[in-house]
Design brief:
Shape of chain B: globular
CATH class of the largest domain in chain B: Alpha Beta
Number of helices of chain B: 17
Order of helices and strands of chain A: HEEHHEHEHEHHEHEHHEHH
Radius of gyration of chain A: 19 Å
Strand content of chain A: 15-25%
Number of helices of chain A: 12
Oligomer: heterodimer
CATH architecture of chain A: Alpha-Beta Barrel
Structural class of chain B: alpha/beta
Strand order of the largest sheet of chain A: 1-2-3-4-5-6-7-8
Number of domains of chain B: 3
Structural class of chain A: alpha/beta
CATH superfamily of chain A: Aldolase class I
CATH architecture of the largest domain in chain B: Alpha-Beta Barrel
Distance between the termini of chain A: 42 Å
CATH class of chain A: Alpha Beta
Largest interface: A-B, 45 and 46 residues
Largest sheet of chain B: 6 strands, mixed
Low-confidence stretches of chain B: none
Mean pLDDT of chain A: 92
Radius of gyration of chain B: 27 Å
CATH superfamily of the largest domain in chain B: Queuine tRNA-ribosyltransferase-like
Helix content of chain B: 25-40%
Mean pLDDT of chain B: 96
Number of strands of chain B: 29
Number of domains of chain A: 1
CATH topology of chain A: TIM Barrel
Distance between the termini of chain B: 30 Å
CATH topology of the largest domain in chain B: TIM Barrel
Strand order of the largest sheet of chain B: 25-29-28-27-24-26
Low-confidence stretches of chain A: 1-10
Chain lengths: 358, 583
């Protein structure tokens, strides 16, 4: 593992500046949240290395990301969903889990095989989720098939993953890699680790018998549409080349509250990516031997990834279809006159003239 | 050092120029075909491009979009390499600087479209930070409707990107706005794309039309700048979009930026058709100088008269009648919208004989307020013993406002109309018993008043001295000093003075504020070029009379640009030489 940590690592002027600005922006948010309720919980189905499974997704309210408190990622507003005071104790975290189980019991016909736990931070960071809680959660879901837990690469250690593998749970670590390009991750996203740290985390997960699901971010601020698409195509392929990383979730950026992206968006300096760009990347990387999925959040709205407004729902459906089938021919079913505009944007948009369209 | 761009002419903040590429590009221009992008450094370290003389290369950049906070801008501000080919540097408003490029790209300028305050703020910041003789490029901003206002604001380079993208999105653009392609009935355009039958006219055609419409509008803008009449056009055309009207009004509020770049005279007419005309720098400057610089030298009662359609006023039939009735016993001052008040001595001075306005017999509240304010300030300074107002009814409200505020009483001599026998007789009677002054007194007052107006408060006496005499027939007057040396000649077309070498020496030896250009050790012949200028007073305006001086030459000429442009410029003419002496 490298020495990168969210506490100590400073990457020069750019990072200082990003953190200074992000802290200031986040300070404008004065909402606080109940530590006994999860941030969000929902039911869905997901593509796993063993096939499509019903899933229970939990966004645990853990007090939020340590990195975000230093300033953090330019597009991430999830810190806004943190609790006052910064930490959530074991008891409250378990109450949140109970809340989610109740939600599942009330709404699902059968229990999900796949349970995904995100924290908007690192589930494997013991200052965020104590070891005691981690073990209790593993025990709670021991009768399921697979679990996904979110973590920054620093905290991926085989000993922690053993809590799950020891209970015969298949486990994947969801790592917010954002991009394989260190320059973009550092300067546009403001995430402190390197691709090498991600590779190391994949090695550590493999040693524990776990897998890694890489989360990529399409179109961070400052990148023009064609540059962002090229970055994603490159990143998917690089992830596919790392042993242990079996799934890539490539997600278009949306405009979240109290973020730098939101400030740019307000002043006409940012547009979320086109859904056609998502389609382009998924089609172009379908030949890789990793599962590539995308879950565009807020699709069709100004603040989310969108096309012209006419075709967004159709394209979104095709993307969800692709997620399950991994077959790019699903995209042949959708067409819209706005592809011409998107192609023009892909040809002509540059970092200094973006966004060419709204 | 600007090597590949040259400003050839100015009309306020707008410029006509040339991108000096293998195939020269007259500006304001669309640069799509000549632009090469060196690439974004946000996602990759880019090497310095090779560049070539046929294109304008955008140096590798980290473009900072609108909305970027200052610390991030500071942290990611780029340095640019010094290159030998035509180059452009991407800048944002707060971090713009002189990077030695030929052109500057206002980062993500499209984000300012629709936002007058943000656009004007960004434009002024960048313009203040980069050398005046470099080109300013606003990418993805231009439309047929906005490009005239953007060029008026001082933007030199544009592209088709926004217009084409809008077309592909199904919007048909014209100089008066945009329409949904589906709603199009008749197309108000004969461009090649619009010759496609309406049933077959698709988004690709629409994009093509938008680009054509933009190119045509830009040709109009270049022509208007050449004529010095872009403002007249913008005042009308900008009204089709609220933010464009807001933009030129906000620029009027930024008087310093516009006034610095506004010529002291133009050959062409200034057409006053809106209340916005009153905010033009030419109008404001005239009012400011009449009320702060002009000195009254004729000791006679004020005779306020209405302006005339014919210019100069004294050539008009009505003013000939007034002059006869007054018989050198009163000081004639014309009241007019949009100029305010014009003392007789300044009736030829730009724009007093160059404007045309809309006459309806009724004045707007804005006109009344403006003229009343100018008249009040004028009277406070000119300080007359008697005030005669020989004006028709619609002017009386103005006089009455000023009477109330200054506590003076006008003697009104018009009944019905100023040129009726009865009115003229009343005017003549009112002046009964007043002594008359000599014509040469009026001529002396005229050249001195023009000097006050042109050079500064008190300059008429300071430069010419107490013993100067005039000769020639008005308005072609010449000024000689007490020793008989020819100092200056009045230019009837613009109501300015051109100085002789002796006049230039008298000027710089006087206490009057001078406009000086310092030059290198050479003797200029036809013109002083910008690279030869080592310094220039910031008070210099385009068209101003300036003195230039260097180790080898002393002379006088006419400024081709404002002072800052001369000092910062590295190409083009700075001063058109009138007289020059080796030393």
């Amino acid at each position: 593992m490298s020495q990168s940590t969210p506490d100590g690592y400073e990457k020069g002027r750019g990072m200082d500046a990003h953190n200074e600005v992000m802290r200031e922006i986040r300070a404008r948010n004065d909402e606080s949240y109940d530590p006994t309720e999860p941030t969000r919980v929902w039911l869905d189905e997901d593509n796993t290395p063993d096939g499509v499974r019903n899933s229970l997704t939990i966004i645990l309210n853990t007090g939020g990301c340590r990195w975000a408190r230093a300033g953090g990622c330019t597009m991430c507003g999830y810190v806004a969903e943190s609790v006052e005071g910064g930490t959530v104790a074991h008891g409250n975290l378990m109450t949140q889990v109970e809340y989610c189980l109740d939600h599942e019991a009330d709404n699902a016909e059968e229990r999900a095989d796949l349970v995904k736990i995100y924290t908007s931070g690192s589930f494997l960071d013991e200052r965020e989720v104590p070891g005691e809680t981690r073990e209790a959660i593993a025990e709670t879901f021991a009768d399921r098939e697979r679990m996904v837990v979110e973590s920054l690469p620093d905290f991926v250690e085989r000993g922690k993953l053993a809590d799950f593998t020891d209970r015969d749970l298949a486990v994947d670590v969801a790592v917010g890699l954002e991009t394989a390009t260190d320059r973009v991750r550092h300067d546009a996203v403001n995430k402190y680790f390197d691709f090498a740290d991600f590779e190391a985390a994949c090695g550590e997960a493999r040693a524990a018998g776990a897998g890694v699901k890489a989360y990529l971010l399409m179109k961070p601020p400052f990148l023009a549409e064609p540059d962002a698409v090229a970055d994603m195509k490159r990143s998917v392929r690089r992830c596919a080349g790392v042993d242990g990383c079996h799934t890539v979730s490539m997600n278009p950026c949306n405009v979240q509250r109290h973020t730098m992206v939101e400030e740019l968006y307000h002043d006409g300096g940012y547009r979320p990516p086109w859904l056609w760009s998502v389609v382009d990347v998924l089609s172009a990387t379908a030949d890789t031997d990793v599962i590539v999925v995308s879950d565009p959040v807020g699709h069709g709205s100004d603040r989310g990834p969108h096309n012209c407004g006419e075709c967004d729902s159709l394209v979104q459906r095709a993307i969800k279809d692709f997620d399950l089938r991994q077959d790019p021919s699903v995209f042949e079913e959708v067409s819209c006159p706005c592809t011409e505009t998107w192609e023009y944007v892909m040809r002509e948009e540059t970092a200094y003239n973006q966004p060419l369209t709204r | 050092m600007t090597e590949y761009f040259e400003v050839h002419g100015r009309d306020g903040a707008a410029r006509r120029g040339e991108l000096r590429l293998t195939e020269p590009v007259p500006t304001p221009a669309l640069v799509d075909d000549v632009l090469e992008d060196g690439g974004s450094r946000w996602h990759a370290e880019q090497s310095v491009p090779e560049g070539d003389d046929a294109s304008l290369t955008v140096l590798p950049h980290r473009a900072l979009p609108p909305g970027t906070e200052r610390p991030v801008e500071d942290a990611f501000t780029d340095e640019y390499p010094d290159v030998a080919f035509p180059s452009a540097a991407v800048v944002s408003p707060t971090t713009a600087d002189d990077y030695g490029a030929d052109a500057y790209v206002l980062s993500n300028a499209g984000g300012y479209v629709g936002h007058a305050e943000a656009f004007v703020g960004a434009l002024l910041s960048v313009r203040a930070a980069v050398p005046d003789d470099t080109a300013l490029y606003c990418p993805a901003a231009a439309t047929p409707a906005n490009v005239a206002t953007l060029a008026y604001a001082g933007v030199d380079l544009f592209d088709e990107k926004r217009a084409r993208a809008r077309g592909l999105e199904g919007f048909y653009l014209t100089t008066d706005g945009e329409a949904f392609l589906e709603d199009l009935g008749e197309r108000p355009c004969p461009c090649p794309a619009c010759r496609t039958p309406i049933e077959a006219f698709d988004r690709t055609d629409c994009a093509e039309h938008n680009a054509n419409a933009l190119a045509a509008e830009l040709a109009r803008v270049r022509g208007r700048i050449g004529q010095g009449r872009l403002r007249d056009y913008v005042e009308g055309q900008a009204r089709h979009e609220a933010w464009l009207t807001a933009t030129f009004r906000r620029l009027d509020q930024q008087y310093g930026y516009l006034e610095e770049r506004t010529p002291v005279f133009r050959r062409n007419e200034l057409l006053a058709t809106t209340d916005d005309t009153l905010r033009r720098p030419e109008i404001q400057r005239f009012a400011e100088r009449v009320t702060n610089r002009y000195r009254r030298r004729l000791d006679a009662p004020l005779v306020l008269v209405p302006c005339s359609a014919r210019k100069p006023y004294s050539d008009s039939q009505s003013h000939e009648q007034f002059t006869r009735a007054i018989g050198y016993r009163g000081h004639i001052v014309s009241m007019t919208s949009p100029i305010g008040v014009v003392p007789n001595e300044l009736e030829t001075t730009y724009p007093a004989q160059h404007y045309d306005s809309v006459v309806t017999g009724e004045w707007t509240e804005t006109e009344i307020g403006f003229v009343a304010a100018v008249l009040e300030r004028y009277l406070e300074r000119a300080d007359y013993d008697r005030h005669i107002a020989h004006v028709p009814t619609e002017y009386r409200e103005i006089c009455e406002r000023v009477e109330a505020s200054l506590g003076i009483d006008f003697e009104y001599t018009v009944s019905d109309h100023p040129t009726t026998d009865e009115s003229l007789a009343a005017l003549e009677d009112a002046l009964g018993g007043e002594p008359s002054y000599y014509k040469r007194e009026r001529e002396s007052a005229t050249v001195r008043a023009i000097a006050d107006f042109q050079f500064g408060d008190g300059a008429g006496d300071a430069v010419f001295g107490p013993d100067a005499t005039t000769e020639g027939i008005y308005p072609k007057l010449r000024v000689r000093n007490g020793d008989g040396d020819h100092l200056a000649t009045m230019v009837p077309q613009y109501g300015t003075l051109s100085l002789t070498l002796a006049g230039a020496r008298a000027w710089i030896d006087s206490d009057a504020p001078t406009k000086r250009v310092d030059i290198d050790g050479f003797v200029p012949s036809g013109s002083v070029l910008a690279p030869g200028v080592t310094g220039a007073d910031e008070s210099i305006r385009p068209g101003d009379e300036v003195v230039f001086e260097g180790p080898k030459a002393f002379g006088v000429g006419r400024a081709a640009s404002h002072g800052r442009a001369m000092a910062e410029g590295s190409r083009g003419v700075a001063v058109d030489v009138r007289h020059c002496a080796e030393r």
